[in-house]
Design goal:
The chain is α+β, with helices and mostly antiparallel strands. Helix content is 50%, strand content 19%.
């Protein structure tokens, strides 16, 4: 069986197209996952995290919707549908919670999402 150069070239183009389509699918799936989580920790060891009900009240009073509020060890995790909601919640909670809490974006464990997030967050520094 003889394989012509034209057949090899077509196979190579098909393989390249398949790899590009797979890469685009991976990027799309990472970008479509917009869920964001805030973590609230007490500054001093042994202090308690804020009450989930009071956090819910502050967010609801400011029209910020969230998916869940979950206590975990010494951290209160608040999950949002988007980074914009998370950022708005951080501003509200920084203003309304008493001093003594660290409110920070919880890092995503998904490696492709973390890479894309890093690129997206630092792109304003280019140029």
């Amino acid at each position: 069986m003889v394989i012509s150069a034209l057949s090899l070239r077509r196979c190579a183009y098909a393989l390249i197209a398949l790899v590009l389509a797979s890469a685009m699918l991976l990027v799309w799936s990472a970008l479509s996952h917009q869920e964001s989580t805030l973590a609230i920790r007490p500054v001093t060891q042994g202090a308690s995290v804020p009450d989930g009900f009071s956090v819910w009240h502050h967010l609801d009073a400011n029209g910020i919707r969230f998916k869940s509020i979950t206590p975990k060890d010494d951290v209160l995790l608040i999950t949002f549908d988007s980074r914009a909601q998370s950022a708005a919640a951080k501003v509200v909670l920084d203003r309304t919670l008493p001093q003594g809490y660290i409110i920070a974006q919880q890092e995503d464990d998904s490696q492709p999402t973390a890479w894309l997030s890093l690129i997206r967050d630092t792109s304003h520094r280019l140029g």
